[in-house]
Amino acid sequence: MRPGAGEFRLGALAGSAVGAIGGLFAIGVARAIIYQNPARLFDLPILALLSWVVGGVTGWFMGGFVGPRFGERFRSPRAELVAGALAGVVPVILIGLWGWYMVRGH
Q: Which of 7, 28, 45, 55 qualifies as a cystine partner to 3, CB 3.0-4.6 A?
């Protein structure tokens, strides 16, 4: 019997880890690049915390959705981990693009 949405899977765990850690720093990367100052990476602690939560939760669901399908297709738990981690990169990229949009102006 397969676990339902939001239940524990290796892909979900990998996606959550990548999404949370990446989301923590993704919001400040654009500021650090544009202002050419690595200290700007940590200028927005509240938004970084919010991005950490959003990236972790979104990575959990995306990794839990994509990871098991790759794991079954390739019959390997490693494939599930890799696919879950790659799915966790998606919210990090979206958060980073949003941060870039906010820094560059409208």
A: 7
**CA distance linking residue 81 with residue 24, whole number of Å:** 21
Spatial contact of 93 and 59, defined as CB atoms under 8 Å apart: no
End-to-end CA distance of the chain: 49
Mean pLDDT of the chain: 91
Could you tell me the pTM of the whole model? Answer: 0.87
Task: Residue 16: name the closest of 76, 88, 75 by CA.
Answer: 88
Cα radius of gyration (the chain): 15
Please tell me the distance from the alpha carbon of residue 103 to that of residue 41, in angstroms, as a whole number. Answer: 12
